[in-house]
Design goal:
The chain has about 450 residues and is mainly α. About 85% of the residues lie in helices and about 0% in strands. The chain has 17 helices and no strands. α11 crosses α13. The longest helix is centred in the first third of the chain and has 37 residues, at about 50-90. The protein is globular and about 60 Å long. The two termini are about 30 Å apart.
Length: about 450
Amino acid sequence: MRNVGEDKQRLMEDTPVGRLLFRMSGPSIIGVMAYNLYNVFDTAFISQGAGTDAVGGVAVSFPLFIFLSAVSSTLGNGAASVISRALGKHDSEKAARAAANTFGLFYAIAILITVVGLVWLDKFLMLMGVTETLMPYARAYTRIILAGAVTSTGFSNLIRAEGNSRYAMLIWVIPVTANIGLDILFIFVLHMGVIGAAAGTVIAQGISMAMSFYYFFISGMSVLNIRPRHFIPEFKLLGEVIGIGIPSFLQLSGQSAALIIVNQFLKVYGGDLAISAYGIANKIIVFFLFPIQGLAQGLQPVIGYNKGAGKTGRVKKAMKTASAMAGIYGIGAYALTFLTAGIFMNIFTSDRAAAQMGSHILWIVNASILFSGIQSMQTTYFQATGQKLMALMLALCGQLFCFVPAILILSQCFGLEGIWLAFPVSALAALILSSLLSYRQFGRL
């Protein structure tokens, strides 16, 4: 391993755990924050530049956007686990093969998604709950997002798995900054509406992809010395990557499925106003989750590398520290939501009815953050250590076992209000189930 690899080895194995977790998570949090700031600005720009119906159209098509993220997260998180553990064992050859195979598989899947999505676009949008009023906006936006599917990841997970959390941050921050500028140009200067928003997104994703290629193949910064032979498909290795990454797919595609389910229920109980208000509120809710996502991303290589190196004491301390941080943040984030929900909604829409309903949604739905952060750390542990079945079970807790029954039962009992209540109720139930499943495994450390 080259000198840069030796430096990263000392960082991951010798730095005090608390300081290491902050060092790995800090840039991740900044990167995820930048991405979620873009989502917030994007929603505000579309609302102000194209109207509330345009926000609703984009929001209803959002599950497809999440599905693309689910594919990249599945491969990225799976490969990151394999790479960090391989580097912990000083097996740089396996790490390089895992990265190269992951690149090849992702681009093949992305092309397939583009073709299938564009051919059956309207059918997919109807399945996602698009109404006739919102269909033109959803169609225009989603067509461009699908056409740019191959740009939808820069594989920051793999860069972070090497220990280079700073560049992993930049691969988020730089494209997101460009995206905000492109939104202003396309929406307000050129008056391109949702088409401009989608075009800005795809161009910014292209910047992220270019930065990834530069890092791995040109810059010399990467520990991984990737060669053409590493791109030869290894189905056993790809099976390991996919198996470990499947929980990420279930979590994100589960969010996509949950949005589809919610939109279908909102069509019945609330109509266009409820769909649009929830679309705005959901972007704000996702923004509040960015520290949790960043913390989980920073935790994964710390656990994976030290598990591979046989340092279980450091793994245990990292889990305790991260879980405590997630719990404390959840309390603070919900308190802030409760106090500022109305302010947030009025920033993003001038429609008084949408703002009032959105504030109510935020008060109820974002209570989920009190419980979801700790469960996310538990899932991250099992992914990072390669325990595919347990990671799969924890991912299913929140997205399948708890949410679907909750929304079915509570909507029948309380109508529209029951839809909002389903989110925190299912998050609490998922944490309880997750903790029960995790308790024995954590005890073995």
